[in-house]
Amino acid sequence: MTQYRLFALTALLLAAGLGTVAANPLFCPELPSGAQIRPENRYFDVLPRIVPANQESVIEIVPLFDHVSLDEDCAYLLTYAPMEYPSRQGGWEPGTQLPIAPENGRFRITAFFEAEQEHTLIIEATCGDEKRTLGNFRVYSVEEDLYGLRPYKGDFHMHTHRSDGVESPAYVAGACRRVGLHFMAVSDHRWYDGSLEAQRAFADAPVDLRIYPAEEVHTPDNPIHIVSFGANEGITELYRDDETDYRAEVDALMESLPPTPDDVDRFHYAACVWAVERIRERDGLAMLAHPYWITRNRHNVEEPLLDYFFEQETFDALELISGFGIESLHRMDVNALQVARYLEERAKGRRIAVCGISDTHGHERSDAFGRYYTVVFAPSLELPDLLAGIQELRSVAVEAPAGVLPRAYGPFRYVKYTQFLIREVFPQHDELCFEEGRLMIQYASGDDSALERLRQLQEQTDRLYERYWTPAAE
Ligand SMILES: [Zn+2]
Ligand SMILES: [Zn+2]
After folding, report:
1. End-to-end CA, the chain
2. Predicted local distance difference test score (pLDDT) of residue 125
């Protein structure tokens, strides 16, 4: 066993009874986010789940119920597989099985987790004549820079009854927590205050969901939709009552901006630059919304202008995946075009920050809500950290419509990690959020009795993350 430095195992036997785990995840109930908790992750704690790459870590696999408790009369075998990279320093050979024994009713597995990748630990039990798989446990190792960050799920393009949506901002915020989001922003058409209304509704309530300001900006005579996320003031206010300054400033930009290609509408371009500048001045992020959305039988943004946007890197971020009107997505896969375009532009070496959003207009009736979101890798949930995470290309766009595998899009490193998180971390997180969201909606309806329960639940999701990232005690 010494030749396998990979698994320095401590041996002790305890406990009784043996359970097995159903292999088919389709039998697991689905959360409103579409996530499913794998049986292994329900029956066992696997701690930590995220470890630093290229060093030795201890993983504890702890049965939580009698039906999976470990039996000293059984023999256990561990099969280990790193997903992508060979285990050079760990000395693991593919196909190797190692005997392991429980200690105090749990397994403690010491292993060298090489490179940034997912690791599979399969434990099989032989009890008398019976052989069973106890579980297929997953751990992810990350390089130092990423180890210090946490994945945060958010959606900041959605509508309420303050524009053309259905529900009130407070309701929508509660619904966001119910589907497992860490942060959200209402972005009503031409109406910044809807997002503030959502903030105000929970200003005195003990909630962990971060509610930020946003607005969908439509500047006069300009067809391009721009989501202003996180700006400390509204943009529409600048011309709602009087367009004189707006028009003068856009005219001035048309004079001063470098020449545009002939087929680019110079006014549309200048109006977008104007909006982006105003958003940035207010510390917000300017996101180009749904360029390939089809309206009046045409794409929202004319191709020459879109080409020019990419060339000039006009916006801070691109809405890569949109959940808007799932019915229209069935007719025309706008997201596939946005992704194809993104990949082509990235191949030209362009920097493009990406977001996934739902653009829902009624959360109870939408199949897209909670299933189209952005994952940002950031040191905290504070707005500047989230905005920096997106702008520094540490985000991915996710779509997880009912009945198909969730898909993440963006930089390879983060897509790979997100695939693990969607399977192994977010489901447990989403389940905790469900009750919080339900209580937020109850509170939004005027029932203050929800506050006490919300207070009890406060920081439960932080504690989950802490457990998943904290190294096991020596
Ligand atoms: Zn729009
Ligand atoms: Zn919208």
Report:
1. 21
2. 96
Q: What does the domain layout of the chain look like in residue ranges? A: 25-143, 150-463
**In this predicted structure, which of 34-43, 362-371, 405-414 has the lowest mean pLDDT?**
362-371
Does the structure show a pLDDT above 80 at 25?
Answer: no
Cα torsion 435, 438, 443, 448 to 10°: value is -40
Which is nearest to 40 in space by CA: 125, 135, 107, 175?
Answer: 135
Report CA(272)–ligand 2 centroid distance (Å).
16
Is 76 within 8 Å of 125 (Cβ atoms)? Answer: yes
Q: Whose CA is closest to 455, among 251, 281, 202?
A: 202
The CA–CA distances, whole Å, from 425 to 27, 37, 259, 420, 466 equal 19, 9, 49, 8, 12
How far is the C-alpha of 381 from the C-alpha of 211, rounded, in Å?
A: 10
Q: Which residues surround ligand 1, an ion (CB under 5 A)?
A: 225, 289
Q: Per DSSP, what are the bridge partners of residue 325? A: none
Say yes or no to pLDDT of 2 above 60: no
Cα separation of 422 and 415, whole Å?
Answer: 10
Which tens digits make up the pLDDT trace of 64-89?
A: 999 999 998 999 999 999 999 888 88
CA of residue 460 to ligand 1 center, whole Å: 35
Q: How far is the CA of 181 from the centre of ligand 2 (A)?
A: 18
Q: Which CATH number fits domain 25-143: 2.130.10.10, 2.40.50.140, 2.60.40.10, 2.60.120.760?
A: 2.60.40.10
**CA pair distance 322, 314, nearest whole angstrom:** 20
Site of tokens 């001063």: 256
CA of 229 to the centre of ligand 1 (A): 14
Q: Decide if pLDDT at 228 tops 90.
A: yes
Q: Which ligand is nearest to the CA of 357?
A: 2
Measured distance CA(279)–CA(275) in Å, rounded: 6
Q: Which CATH superfamily is domain 150-463 in?
A: Metal-dependent hydrolases (3.20.20.140)
Query: Ligand 1 center to residue 404 CA distance, Å?
Result: 25
Residue with tokens 């009795």: 449
Ligand in closest contact with the CA of 165: 2
> What separation in Å is there between the alpha carbon of 209 and the centre of ligand 1?
24
